[in-house]
Design goal:
Elements (H helix, E strand, L loop, with lengths): L1 H13 L13 H15 L2 E7 L8 E6 L3 E3 L3 E2 L8 E10 L3 E2 L7 H6 L1 E11 L11 H6 L4 E6 L15 E6 L2 E7 L7 H12 L5 E2 L4 E6 L4 E2 L4 E7 L4 E6 L1
Parallel strand pairs: 1-12, 3-8, 4-15
Antiparallel strand pairs: 1-2, 5-7, 5-12, 5-13, 6-11, 7-8, 9-10, 9-14, 14-15
Length: 245
């Protein structure tokens, strides 16, 4: 595992992208162990990404380091990325700790620990020579394709939000790319938060006050070129803009 961690770190530092891992993870547990080891090398973990393929599927996650979390940014330099895949998401910031414990947290306990909800961008990227070029476990080991998280302003009344009814339109350079309602493949994002509190963050001691959890794409991934301007228009959560050049 150590060699894999070193290879992923070196790819970030040198921008010499990997054609593959010499030893692919044998299972999800090993992929997560690699994720965690890389994250600890990269610095403080201040956010998480979580998603699921379907409303019934087991969620998946990745830790996000402070260096790739941007509060309220509407511009990022393109040289931070190899590829630029924009996703409009919904993110939750926690007001207090939910430490790992034996008794599972209930949905209400998790919601009571939430401080605010935000529209957000995730930019997906890869440390491999092509996006989607590897097997699922290799991409899981590579921070599940995380590039950056941009956290928008808190919405006024987050408890009134119904993510399953929230519309999102994604435009790139004035062209509508996606129009959707409740477009997250995972369905209810609160289910993902509960899983994170009970399972996903155990290796880091649970969720911590101030951390942000972004709950998967509402729009799918739209790949953009440097210099493009992306706009996400939410039904009730406002509008986010992002230029990467």
């Amino acid at each position: 595992m150590t060699d894999t961690v070193e290879a992923l770190i070196a790819a970030r530092e040198t921008r010499k992208w990997l054609t593959g891992l010499d030893r692919r993870p044998a299972d999800e547990a090993e992929a997560y162990a690699i994720q965690d080891a890389v994250a600890r090398r990269l610095g403080p973990v201040t956010a998480w990404k979580v998603g699921a393929a379907t409303p019934e599927a087991e969620p998946f996650r990745a830790p996000i380091n402070a260096a790739t979390v941007f509060e309220g940014a509407d511009h990022l330099p393109a040289n931070l990325f190899q590829v630029i895949g924009v996703e409009a998401e919904i993110a939750y910031r926690f007001a207090r700790d939910l430490p790992a414990r034996e008794q599972p947290y209930t949905r209400e306990e998790v919601l009571d620990a939430v401080d605010s909800v935000h529209p957000a961008w995730e930019i997906v990227d890869t440390r491999f020579t092509g996006f989607g070029s590897q097997d699922r476990l290799s991409h899981m080991a590579d921070q599940f394709n995380h590039g950056a998280l941009i956290v928008g302003p808190a919405i006024a009344d987050w408890r009134a939000l119904d993510p399953l009814k929230e519309s999102v339109t994604l435009e790139v350079d004035g062209e509508t790319k996606v129009e959707t309602v409740g477009g997250n493949s995972a369905g209810d994002p609160v289910r993902l938060l509960v899983w994170m509190a009970n399972v996903g963050t155990r290796s880091f001691g649970g969720l911590h006050a101030g951390e942000v959890v972004t709950t998967g794409s509402c729009t799918g991934t739209v790949f953009v070129q440097p210099g493009s301007r992306s706009v996400a228009r939410y039904g009730t959560m406002g509008t986010l803009t992002l230029k990467v050049d």
